[in-house]
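QA checklist item 7 of 12: single-chain prediction sanity check.
[x] sequence parsed
[x] length recorded as 200
[x] structure emitted
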Amino acid sequence: MHSSPPPLEARTESPGDGLASVHSVRLRVNGQDHEVEIPSWVTLLDLLRERLGLMGTKKGCDHGQCGACTVLADGQRINACLTLAVMQEGVDITTVEGLPALAGEGRASAGLHPLQQAFIDHDAFQCGYCTPGQLCSAVGLMNEGGAQTADDVRERMSGNLCRCGAYPQIVQAVARVAGIRVDAMRLSPPAPFAVQESQA
């Protein structure tokens, strides 16, 4: 059963557009240059989805709390719902669609970034709604460096929520690609509760 939340209403157009100031913004998205005319209040998330048709970046909470909209801005992860598109003038944006190109020569397999393949190998998604944000966040984590343990991965990915609870698999996938040894015991699922038979 798919349980993806319905997308919130896009906010790239408004009855008040005629009164809003419009700006020309140039940015590079997944290796392609774009110049768009947009009202100043349009978020990067809505620009990506509604103007550029890049639907891989998800709109979750739209308040910067779930991380579903995480993208890379000059290699650093940001919540696309919390930044205005006009603030990204001249920035190099990478969405989940652009991740394979970041893999480097010979590292992309079957058109996938190694993290995407690791997510498949470790069954690190269920409904998949948070996966694009998780993947971009994981690439950002590796760009930042410094993660040495599975706990580091958990801490540094804590801004990305998975309501399906696939966290152990996500940590395994990220740790594998980042070259971090994972304590298998700590990633094991909890033992099921024992069912006691009625004494009556």
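[x] summary fact logged: The longest helix spans residues 131-144.
[ ] second reviewer sign-off
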